[in-house]
Amino acid sequence: MIRSWVEGGVGRIHIDDAEHRNVLSLDHSRAIAAAVAAFRPDADHVGADHVSADDVGAIVLTAADPVFCSGGVLDDLIEPKAPLIEVYAAFDALRSAPVVTLAVVTGAAIGAGVNLPLACDIVIAGESARFDPRFLDVGVHPGGGHLFLLQQGVGRQGAAALSLCGDALTGPEAERAGLAWRCVPDDEALPLAMTLATRAAGRDRELMRRAKATLAAQPLTHQEAFDLELEAQQWSMDRPGFKDHVRALRDRLQQRKQGGR
């Protein structure tokens, strides 16, 4: 079961199937994708508590303990229920979401379950987290952009160790390797993610979406990145209200300086 709701400007998506170790079934993948789509600013949808998708400035993905996600359904590999590309609906939706996405990983993320945090912008790991790809153990090639995203996080050597040699990372190891942004005690993981998500949701939505789109355009050559950022920065400075916003910020800073004297 996939539950979704809006909490203080943050779209929450929760995998709530602990009985089946939060398996990433076709139905679950589709449901996660649908939840992300409902939170998009262009969605014709009103979410929980009558909050429109326009009010969602970040998305936080969580799962019921004790396993974050045990990966795909083995029976579906034997008798597929849909074309392979449809299994990747959740990964693609999270990766392409226009708002910042955060995954809170406590317990094990196994196989395709690793793709869920990989597809998010930020991973907050609990100390109980374990990232264990295992694709080759099942006799299947990694999919869903796994190798590309993994290499972005931990580099080529790390991706080789995890995907080809069967290595796995604990939460603290994932933080050191770059697969997770922070590793904290399990009970602090969701509050930290919500703090970051709420901060993102409180910022100018249009500006945040443009900045994330620029970030998602990487990797580029230095000149391509320079030109892309220059265009986006000029756009932000040409928006109505920009100068008033900067003036207000300048005045607040001056007041702080005067108050500190």
Can you characterise this structure?
With 261 residues, the chain is of the alpha/beta class. The chain folds into 2 domains: 2-201, 2-enoyl-CoA Hydratase, Chain A, domain 1 (Alpha-Beta Complex); 217-259, no CATH class. It has helices spanning 26-39, 74-78, 84-87, 89-96, 115-118, 146-163, 171-177, 186-201, 205-216, 222-238, 242-259; strands at 2-7, 10-15, 58-63, 100-105, 108-110, 122-126, 130-132, 169-170, 182-184. A 6-stranded mixed beta sheet has the order 1-2-3-4-6-9, sandwiched between helices. Strands 5-7-8 form a 3-stranded mixed beta sheet.
What is the fold's blueprint, element by element?
Layout: E1 2-7, E2 10-15, H1 26-39, E3 58-63, H2 74-78, H3 84-87, H4 89-96, E4 100-105, E5 108-110, H5 115-118, E6 122-126, E7 130-132, H6 146-163, E8 169-170, H7 171-177, E9 182-184, H8 186-201, H9 205-216, H10 222-238, H11 242-259
Parallel strand pairs: 2-3, 3-4, 4-6, 5-7, 6-9
Antiparallel strand pairs: 1-2, 7-8
Helix pairs in contact: 1-4, 9-10
Our Rg estimate from Cα atoms comes to 20 Å
Largest sheet: 6 strands, mixed
Which structural class is indicated by helix and strand composition? alpha/beta
Low-confidence parts lasting 5 or more residues at pLDDT below 50?
A: 45-51
Tell me what portion of residues adopts beta-strand conformation: 15-25%
CATH class of the largest domain: Alpha Beta
